[in-house]
Protein backbone atom coordinates (compact mmCIF):
# COMPACT_ATOMS: atom_id res chain seq x y z
CA UNK A 1 0.00 0.00 0.00
CA UNK A 2 1.46 3.22 -1.09
CA UNK A 3 0.24 6.65 0.64
CA UNK A 4 1.27 17.14 2.17
CA UNK A 5 1.40 24.95 1.21
CA UNK A 6 0.57 26.11 -2.02
CA UNK A 7 2.87 28.92 -3.21
CA UNK A 8 1.37 32.20 -4.26
CA UNK A 9 0.87 32.97 -7.95
CA UNK A 10 0.99 36.26 -9.84
CA UNK A 11 -1.30 34.88 -12.57
CA UNK A 12 -4.93 35.93 -12.37
CA UNK A 13 -7.54 33.18 -11.89
CA UNK A 14 -9.01 33.88 -15.36
CA UNK A 15 -5.59 33.64 -17.07
CA UNK A 16 -4.66 30.51 -15.15
CA UNK A 17 -7.96 28.90 -16.11
CA UNK A 18 -7.38 29.69 -19.80
CA UNK A 19 -3.85 28.31 -19.73
CA UNK A 20 -5.10 25.17 -18.01
CA UNK A 21 -7.67 24.54 -20.74
CA UNK A 22 -5.03 24.99 -23.45
CA UNK A 23 -2.62 22.62 -21.72
CA UNK A 24 -5.32 20.02 -21.12
CA UNK A 25 -6.33 20.06 -24.76
CA UNK A 26 -2.76 19.65 -26.01
CA UNK A 27 -1.48 17.09 -23.50
CA UNK A 28 -4.01 14.30 -23.89
CA UNK A 29 -6.54 16.05 -21.73
CA UNK A 30 -4.72 15.20 -18.51
CA UNK A 31 -3.02 18.34 -17.31
CA UNK A 32 -3.81 20.36 -14.24
CA UNK A 33 -2.83 23.93 -13.33
CA UNK A 34 0.10 24.33 -10.98
CA UNK A 35 1.13 27.05 -8.57
CA UNK A 36 4.10 29.01 -9.79
CA UNK A 37 5.66 30.00 -6.51
CA UNK A 38 8.41 32.64 -6.48
CA UNK A 39 9.21 33.84 -9.99
CA UNK A 40 12.56 33.34 -11.63
CA UNK A 41 13.67 35.15 -14.78
CA UNK A 42 12.03 33.40 -17.74
CA UNK A 43 14.30 31.07 -19.68
CA UNK A 44 12.06 31.15 -22.76
CA UNK A 45 12.81 33.50 -25.61
CA UNK A 46 9.58 35.43 -25.02
CA UNK A 47 6.21 35.18 -23.26
CA UNK A 48 2.71 34.45 -24.52
CA UNK A 49 1.22 31.78 -26.77
CA UNK A 50 4.29 31.89 -29.08
CA UNK A 51 6.68 31.00 -26.22
CA UNK A 52 9.70 29.06 -27.46
CA UNK A 53 12.41 27.54 -25.33
CA UNK A 54 15.93 27.19 -26.72
CA UNK A 55 17.19 23.85 -27.97
CA UNK A 56 20.58 22.50 -28.86
CA UNK A 57 23.47 20.69 -27.27
CA UNK A 58 24.14 21.48 -23.61
CA UNK A 59 27.77 21.75 -22.57
CA UNK A 60 28.00 19.61 -19.44
CA UNK A 61 31.54 20.30 -18.22
CA UNK A 62 31.09 22.26 -14.97
CA UNK A 63 32.88 20.89 -11.91
CA UNK A 64 30.71 18.33 -10.13
CA UNK A 65 31.59 18.84 -6.49
CA UNK A 66 31.33 16.43 -3.55
CA UNK A 67 28.56 14.06 -2.55
CA UNK A 68 25.70 15.29 -0.36
CA UNK A 69 23.81 13.35 2.27
CA UNK A 70 20.19 12.74 3.17
CA UNK A 71 19.13 10.80 6.28
CA UNK A 72 19.02 7.55 4.28
CA UNK A 73 20.98 8.22 1.10
CA UNK A 74 24.04 9.73 -0.50
CA UNK A 75 23.54 11.98 -3.54
CA UNK A 76 26.54 11.93 -5.91
CA UNK A 77 26.54 14.56 -8.70
CA UNK A 78 27.08 13.04 -12.17
CA UNK A 79 26.98 14.00 -15.85
CA UNK A 80 23.73 13.83 -17.81
CA UNK A 81 25.40 11.26 -20.08
CA UNK A 82 25.24 8.75 -17.21
CA UNK A 83 21.40 8.57 -17.37
CA UNK A 84 20.47 5.52 -19.46
CA UNK A 85 18.13 6.35 -22.34
CA UNK A 86 17.65 10.01 -21.45
CA UNK A 87 17.46 11.23 -25.05
CA UNK A 88 14.81 8.64 -25.98
CA UNK A 89 12.18 9.26 -23.29
CA UNK A 90 8.71 10.63 -24.06
CA UNK A 91 9.14 13.54 -21.67
CA UNK A 92 5.65 14.94 -22.29
CA UNK A 93 4.22 11.95 -20.39
CA UNK A 94 6.30 12.85 -17.32
CA UNK A 95 5.15 16.46 -17.58
CA UNK A 96 1.66 15.40 -16.54
CA UNK A 97 3.04 14.10 -13.24
CA UNK A 98 5.24 17.17 -12.76
CA UNK A 99 2.31 19.52 -13.32
CA UNK A 100 0.38 17.67 -10.62
CA UNK A 101 3.38 18.05 -8.27
CA UNK A 102 3.31 21.77 -8.98
CA UNK A 103 -0.08 21.92 -7.25
CA UNK A 104 1.77 21.29 -3.96
CA UNK A 105 5.45 21.76 -4.77
CA UNK A 106 8.24 21.54 -2.20
CA UNK A 107 9.69 24.99 -1.55
CA UNK A 108 12.97 24.28 -3.33
CA UNK A 109 11.19 23.23 -6.54
CA UNK A 110 8.34 25.77 -6.57
CA UNK A 111 10.37 28.33 -8.53
CA UNK A 112 10.58 25.89 -11.46
CA UNK A 113 6.82 25.51 -11.84
CA UNK A 114 6.30 28.54 -14.06
CA UNK A 115 8.63 27.05 -16.67
CA UNK A 116 7.17 23.57 -16.13
CA UNK A 117 3.72 24.90 -16.92
CA UNK A 118 4.83 26.74 -20.05
CA UNK A 119 6.83 23.71 -21.22
CA UNK A 120 3.64 21.65 -21.25
CA UNK A 121 3.13 22.83 -24.85
CA UNK A 122 6.82 22.77 -25.81
CA UNK A 123 8.65 20.25 -27.97
CA UNK A 124 10.57 17.29 -26.58
CA UNK A 125 13.83 18.98 -27.63
CA UNK A 126 12.90 22.11 -25.68
CA UNK A 127 12.05 20.10 -22.59
CA UNK A 128 15.28 18.13 -22.80
CA UNK A 129 17.39 21.27 -23.19
CA UNK A 130 15.61 22.97 -20.30
CA UNK A 131 16.14 19.99 -17.99
CA UNK A 132 19.86 19.93 -18.71
CA UNK A 133 20.19 23.69 -18.31
CA UNK A 134 18.38 23.92 -14.98
CA UNK A 135 18.80 20.62 -13.16
CA UNK A 136 21.75 18.62 -11.87
CA UNK A 137 21.54 14.80 -11.86
CA UNK A 138 22.55 13.07 -8.63
CA UNK A 139 23.05 9.33 -8.47
CA UNK A 140 21.17 8.00 -5.45
CA UNK A 141 23.21 5.61 -3.35
CA UNK A 142 22.90 4.00 0.05
CA UNK A 143 24.98 5.55 2.79
CA UNK A 144 27.58 2.81 2.24
CA UNK A 145 27.79 3.53 -1.49
CA UNK A 146 25.51 0.92 -3.08
CA UNK A 147 23.72 2.29 -6.16
CA UNK A 148 21.44 -0.67 -6.96
CA UNK A 149 18.17 -1.30 -5.17
CA UNK A 150 14.77 -2.77 -5.94
CA UNK A 151 11.71 -1.75 -7.92
CA UNK A 152 8.22 -3.07 -7.23
CA UNK A 153 4.91 -1.83 -8.56
CA UNK A 154 1.40 -1.05 -7.37
CA UNK A 155 -1.88 -0.20 -9.02
CA UNK A 156 -5.48 0.86 -8.43
CA UNK A 157 -7.87 -2.11 -8.65
CA UNK A 158 -11.24 -1.82 -10.36
CA UNK A 159 -14.13 -3.66 -8.74
CA UNK A 160 -17.90 -4.03 -8.79
CA UNK A 161 -19.84 -3.37 -5.60
CA UNK A 162 -23.23 -2.67 -4.11
CA UNK A 163 -24.40 0.16 -1.89
CA UNK A 164 -26.67 -2.26 -0.01
CA UNK A 165 -25.93 -5.69 1.34
CA UNK A 166 -27.30 -8.63 -0.64
CA UNK A 167 -26.78 -12.38 -0.62
CA UNK A 168 -24.09 -11.99 -3.28
CA UNK A 169 -22.52 -8.74 -2.03
CA UNK A 170 -21.78 -9.33 1.65
CA UNK A 171 -18.14 -8.26 2.23
CA UNK A 172 -18.12 -4.78 3.81
CA UNK A 173 -15.78 -1.88 3.10
CA UNK A 174 -15.80 0.51 6.04
CA UNK A 175 -15.32 4.18 6.80
CA UNK A 176 -13.21 5.01 9.84
CA UNK A 177 -14.98 3.53 12.89
CA UNK A 178 -16.74 5.58 15.51
CA UNK A 179 -14.29 6.81 18.15
CA UNK A 180 -11.31 6.00 15.93
CA UNK A 181 -8.02 7.11 17.43
CA UNK A 182 -9.02 6.59 21.07
CA UNK A 183 -7.86 2.97 21.09
CA UNK A 184 -4.47 2.34 19.44
CA UNK A 185 -3.85 -0.07 17.97
CA UNK A 186 -7.44 -0.83 17.06
CA UNK A 187 -8.86 -4.34 16.69
CA UNK A 188 -7.06 -6.82 14.42
CA UNK A 189 -8.60 -8.11 11.20
CA UNK A 190 -9.77 -11.27 12.96
CA UNK A 191 -11.24 -9.30 15.87
CA UNK A 192 -13.06 -6.98 13.46
CA UNK A 193 -14.69 -10.02 11.92
CA UNK A 194 -15.57 -11.74 15.20
CA UNK A 195 -15.82 -9.42 18.23
CA UNK A 196 -19.24 -7.87 18.98
CA UNK A 197 -17.66 -4.65 20.30
CA UNK A 198 -15.70 -4.16 17.07
CA UNK A 199 -18.81 -4.88 15.03
CA UNK A 200 -20.78 -2.37 17.11
CA UNK A 201 -18.21 0.37 16.45
CA UNK A 202 -18.51 -0.27 12.71
CA UNK A 203 -22.29 -0.52 12.55
CA UNK A 204 -23.59 1.88 9.90
CA UNK A 205 -20.07 2.71 8.70
CA UNK A 206 -20.28 0.55 5.56
CA UNK A 207 -19.48 2.42 2.35
CA UNK A 208 -20.17 -0.49 0.03
CA UNK A 209 -20.23 -4.27 -0.20
CA UNK A 210 -18.13 -6.58 -2.38
CA UNK A 211 -18.85 -10.15 -3.41
CA UNK A 212 -15.34 -11.58 -2.97
CA UNK A 213 -13.16 -11.47 0.18
CA UNK A 214 -10.01 -11.72 -1.95
CA UNK A 215 -11.02 -8.59 -3.87
CA UNK A 216 -11.44 -6.86 -0.51
CA UNK A 217 -7.96 -8.02 0.52
CA UNK A 218 -6.48 -6.65 -2.71
CA UNK A 219 -8.18 -3.33 -2.06
CA UNK A 220 -6.75 -3.26 1.47
CA UNK A 221 -3.24 -4.03 0.19
CA UNK A 222 -3.30 -1.43 -2.60
CA UNK A 223 -4.92 1.21 -0.35
CA UNK A 224 -7.45 2.55 -2.84
CA UNK A 225 -9.57 1.43 -5.76
CA UNK A 226 -12.17 2.27 -8.37
CA UNK A 227 -15.61 0.92 -7.61
CA UNK A 228 -18.46 0.58 -10.08
CA UNK A 229 -21.23 0.70 -7.52
CA UNK A 230 -24.90 -0.13 -7.84
CA UNK A 231 -26.96 2.29 -5.75
CA UNK A 232 -30.09 1.40 -3.81
CA UNK A 233 -32.25 2.75 -6.67
CA UNK A 234 -30.49 0.52 -9.22
CA UNK A 235 -28.38 3.26 -10.82
CA UNK A 236 -24.68 2.60 -11.38
CA UNK A 237 -21.83 5.07 -10.99
CA UNK A 238 -18.05 5.09 -10.71
CA UNK A 239 -16.46 6.22 -7.45
CA UNK A 240 -13.05 5.99 -5.83
CA UNK A 241 -12.48 4.45 -2.43
CA UNK A 242 -9.42 6.28 -1.09
CA UNK A 243 -7.27 5.42 1.88
CA UNK A 244 -8.54 6.92 5.16
CA UNK A 245 -6.53 5.09 7.83
CA UNK A 246 -5.64 1.72 9.34
CA UNK A 247 -6.07 -0.14 12.60
CA UNK A 248 -2.35 0.51 13.31
CA UNK A 249 -1.35 -3.14 13.19
CA UNK A 250 1.63 -4.16 11.03
CA UNK A 251 1.04 -5.46 7.52
CA UNK A 252 1.88 -9.15 7.12
CA UNK A 253 2.00 -10.70 3.67
CA UNK A 254 -0.41 -13.55 3.00
CA UNK A 255 2.09 -14.76 0.40
CA UNK A 256 4.76 -15.03 3.10
CA UNK A 257 2.30 -16.87 5.35
CA UNK A 258 1.68 -19.42 2.58
CA UNK A 259 5.39 -19.80 1.80
CA UNK A 260 6.34 -20.31 5.44
CA UNK A 261 3.87 -23.22 5.65
CA UNK A 262 5.10 -24.75 2.38
CA UNK A 263 1.63 -24.34 0.92
CA UNK A 264 2.90 -22.62 -2.24
CA UNK A 265 6.21 -22.11 -4.02
CA UNK A 266 5.06 -19.14 -6.12
CA UNK A 267 4.05 -16.10 -4.03
CA UNK A 268 2.83 -14.06 -7.01
CA UNK A 269 -0.89 -13.28 -7.17
CA UNK A 270 -1.45 -16.01 -9.78
CA UNK A 271 0.21 -18.50 -7.41
CA UNK A 272 -1.81 -17.31 -4.43
CA UNK A 273 -5.03 -17.35 -6.46
CA UNK A 274 -4.39 -20.95 -7.54
CA UNK A 275 -3.99 -22.02 -3.89
CA UNK A 276 -7.18 -20.17 -2.92
CA UNK A 277 -9.14 -21.94 -5.64
CA UNK A 278 -7.95 -25.31 -4.32
CA UNK A 279 -8.34 -24.51 -0.62
CA UNK A 280 -11.53 -22.45 -0.09
CA UNK A 281 -11.93 -23.84 3.43
CA UNK A 282 -8.65 -22.15 4.52
CA UNK A 283 -9.20 -18.73 2.95
CA UNK A 284 -10.41 -17.15 6.19
CA UNK A 285 -7.37 -18.46 8.06
CA UNK A 286 -5.13 -16.94 5.38
CA UNK A 287 -6.91 -13.58 5.55
CA UNK A 288 -6.61 -13.43 9.33
CA UNK A 289 -2.84 -13.99 9.08
CA UNK A 290 -2.64 -10.29 8.13
CA UNK A 291 -3.81 -8.27 11.17
CA UNK A 292 -3.69 -4.94 9.32
CA UNK A 293 -7.07 -3.52 8.27
CA UNK A 294 -7.66 -0.48 6.05
CA UNK A 295 -10.54 1.99 6.25
CA UNK A 296 -11.67 4.06 3.28
CA UNK A 297 -13.34 7.29 2.26
CA UNK A 298 -15.45 7.75 -0.84
CA UNK A 299 -14.48 10.29 -3.49
CA UNK A 300 -16.25 11.21 -6.75
CA UNK A 301 -14.52 10.00 -9.90
CA UNK A 302 -15.41 12.05 -12.95
CA UNK A 303 -13.98 14.47 -15.47
CA UNK A 304 -10.19 14.89 -15.46
CA UNK A 305 -9.88 12.84 -12.25
CA UNK A 306 -10.65 9.68 -14.22
CA UNK A 307 -7.30 10.10 -16.03
CA UNK A 308 -5.29 10.04 -12.79
CA UNK A 309 -4.83 7.72 -9.87
CA UNK A 310 -5.52 8.37 -6.19
CA UNK A 311 -3.67 11.05 -4.25
CA UNK A 312 -0.27 9.98 -3.01
CA UNK A 313 1.53 11.07 0.13
CA UNK A 314 2.53 14.38 -1.52
CA UNK A 315 -1.17 15.19 -1.68
CA UNK A 316 -1.50 15.18 -5.49
CA UNK A 317 -3.05 12.59 -7.84
CA UNK A 318 -0.71 9.93 -9.20
CA UNK A 319 0.05 9.66 -12.91
CA UNK A 320 0.11 6.15 -14.42
CA UNK A 321 3.62 5.18 -15.48
CA UNK A 322 5.19 8.39 -14.18
CA UNK A 323 4.67 8.45 -10.40
CA UNK A 324 6.72 6.51 -7.89
CA UNK A 325 6.56 5.91 -4.17
CA UNK A 326 9.87 6.38 -2.34
CA UNK A 327 11.39 6.47 1.10
CA UNK A 328 11.11 10.13 2.08
CA UNK A 329 14.36 9.83 4.03
CA UNK A 330 16.09 9.23 0.70
CA UNK A 331 14.17 11.39 -1.80
CA UNK A 332 11.80 14.30 -0.96
CA UNK A 333 8.28 14.35 -2.38
CA UNK A 334 7.96 16.27 -5.63
CA UNK A 335 11.49 15.49 -6.80
CA UNK A 336 11.85 14.59 -10.50
CA UNK A 337 13.81 11.33 -10.75
CA UNK A 338 15.42 9.43 -13.59
CA UNK A 339 14.63 5.73 -13.19
CA UNK A 340 16.37 2.76 -14.77
CA UNK A 341 15.17 -0.77 -14.13
CA UNK A 342 15.56 -3.92 -16.22
CA UNK A 343 14.00 -7.22 -15.28
CA UNK A 344 12.44 -10.31 -16.77
CA UNK A 345 9.15 -8.50 -17.47
CA UNK A 346 10.00 -4.95 -18.51
CA UNK A 347 12.76 -2.37 -18.88
CA UNK A 348 12.16 1.20 -17.75
CA UNK A 349 14.34 4.17 -18.71
CA UNK A 350 12.25 7.22 -17.93
CA UNK A 351 11.57 10.42 -16.03
CA UNK A 352 9.26 9.94 -13.05
CA UNK A 353 8.27 12.04 -10.03
CA UNK A 354 8.47 11.01 -6.37
CA UNK A 355 4.89 11.54 -5.16
CA UNK A 356 4.06 8.76 -2.73
CA UNK A 357 5.40 6.42 -0.08
CA UNK A 358 4.44 3.15 1.57
CA UNK A 359 5.18 1.11 4.66
CA UNK A 360 7.25 -1.38 2.63
CA UNK A 361 9.11 1.29 0.65
CA UNK A 362 12.22 1.60 2.79
CA UNK A 363 15.79 2.31 1.72
CA UNK A 364 17.91 4.64 -0.40
CA UNK A 365 17.38 3.04 -3.82
CA UNK A 366 13.84 1.74 -3.39
CA UNK A 367 10.74 2.64 -5.40
CA UNK A 368 7.20 1.43 -5.98
CA UNK A 369 6.04 2.25 -9.50
CA UNK A 370 2.42 3.31 -10.04
CA UNK A 371 1.22 1.16 -12.94
CA UNK A 372 -2.29 2.58 -13.34
CA UNK A 373 -5.60 0.82 -12.79
CA UNK A 374 -7.53 -2.24 -13.80
CA UNK A 375 -6.75 -5.91 -14.36
CA UNK A 376 -3.98 -5.48 -16.94
CA UNK A 377 -2.12 -3.01 -14.71
CA UNK A 378 -2.64 -5.30 -11.72
CA UNK A 379 -1.37 -8.40 -13.52
CA UNK A 380 1.86 -6.63 -14.53
CA UNK A 381 2.33 -4.82 -11.22
CA UNK A 382 2.13 -8.13 -9.35
CA UNK A 383 5.08 -9.50 -11.34
CA UNK A 384 7.43 -6.52 -10.99
CA UNK A 385 10.32 -7.13 -8.61
CA UNK A 386 13.57 -6.18 -10.28
CA UNK A 387 16.87 -4.25 -9.94
CA UNK A 388 16.67 -0.47 -9.79
CA UNK A 389 18.89 2.58 -10.15
CA UNK A 390 17.76 6.15 -9.46
CA UNK A 391 19.05 9.66 -10.20
CA UNK A 392 17.45 12.67 -8.49
CA UNK A 393 17.24 15.83 -10.62
CA UNK A 394 17.75 18.87 -8.40
CA UNK A 395 17.93 22.60 -9.27
CA UNK A 396 21.44 23.77 -10.07
CA UNK A 397 22.84 26.09 -7.45
CA UNK A 398 20.61 24.79 -4.67
CA UNK A 399 21.95 22.54 -1.91
CA UNK A 400 20.60 19.02 -1.64
CA UNK A 401 17.85 19.05 1.02
CA UNK A 402 19.03 17.59 4.30
From TrEMBL:
Pfam family, one: 3D
Signal sequence segment: 1-32
Broad class of enzyme this protein falls into: lyase
PROSITE patterns with a match to the protein in the record: PROKAR_LIPOPROTEIN (PS51257)
Catalytic reactions of this protein: Exolytic cleavage of the (1->4)-beta-glycosidic linkage between N-acetylmuramic acid (MurNAc) and N-acetylglucosamine (GlcNAc) residues in peptidoglycan, from either the reducing or the non-reducing ends of the peptidoglycan chains, with concomitant formation of a 1,6-anhydrobond in the MurNAc residue
Alphabetically ordered keywords of this record: Cell wall biogenesis/degradation, Lyase, Signal
CDD domains, per the entry: mlta_B, mltA_like_LT_A
Chain intervals for the UniProt region annotation (Disordered): 37-64
Record-linked InterPro entries: 3D_dom (IPR010611), MltA (IPR026044), MltA_B (IPR005300), RlpA-like_sf (IPR036908)
Ranges for domain Lytic transglycosylase MltA: 158-297
Highest taxon of the lineage: Bacteria
EC number: 4.2.2.n1
Keyword Cell wall biogenesis/degradation carried by entry: yes
Protein name: peptidoglycan lytic exotransglycosylase
Species in which this protein is naturally found: Comamonas jiangduensis
